[in-house]
Design goal:
about 5% strand; mainly alpha; about 160 residues; three-stranded antiparallel β-sheet
């Protein structure tokens, strides 16, 4: 067991961040090895647009659970690369409709086999979907529990175990 593993939940965030950085680095290398210019940060928006003809920025926010400015920035990055286009909604001038451009659709045909290979490789490396199930449970728990309040409660009102009584 290495040092990080021995510290348990005290370094959960650090371990998840390290794992995420390693994973994203390997994915970026895979895109590059295939001659594909694509950044992993674009994935959520690009994928949603590949599954839907057109989405509003608000719909993107809701789907990927980011703020409106963050979604707008992702869309702007994709627009600057020529991968998406945005138009004003004919029904509501306040809404921007986002869709893949022709260049984005062309990139999609090149990137789909990479996504399939990523899925297959991760199923092989990680085994069953147990880790994904565990991550979902953890995300749900973090959204439903006030972690800070619980930590403060534990500091100021620790629960004594039966053996300490």
């Amino acid at each position: 067991m290495n040092y990080y593993q021995s510290l348990g939940y005290l370094v959960l965030g650090s371990r998840l961040k390290r794992l995420s950085e390693l994973f994203l680095s390997e994915i970026n290398k895979s895109y590059k090895a295939e001659g594909i210019v694509f950044e992993t940060t674009w994935f959520p928006v690009f994928y949603l647009l590949s599954e839907n003809k057109t989405l509003t920025i608000q719909e993107l926010c809701e789907q990927i659970e980011v703020s409106h400015p963050a979604a707008s920035q992702l869309v702007t990055n994709l627009k600057n690369k020529g991968l998406v286009i945005s138009t004003t909604s004919p029904d509501d001038a306040r809404k921007q409709l986002v869709t893949l451009s022709e260049e984005g659709k062309t990139l999609l045909t090149r990137i789909l086999p990479v996504w399939d290979a990523i899925t297959a490789t991760m199923e092989e490396v990680a085994g069953s979907s147990a880790i994904l199930d565990t991550l979902t449970k953890l995300e749900t728990a973090f959204k439903s529990v006030d972690i800070v309040k619980n930590i403060q409660n534990e500091i100021h009102h620790p629960v004594k175990s039966q053996s300490n009584a």
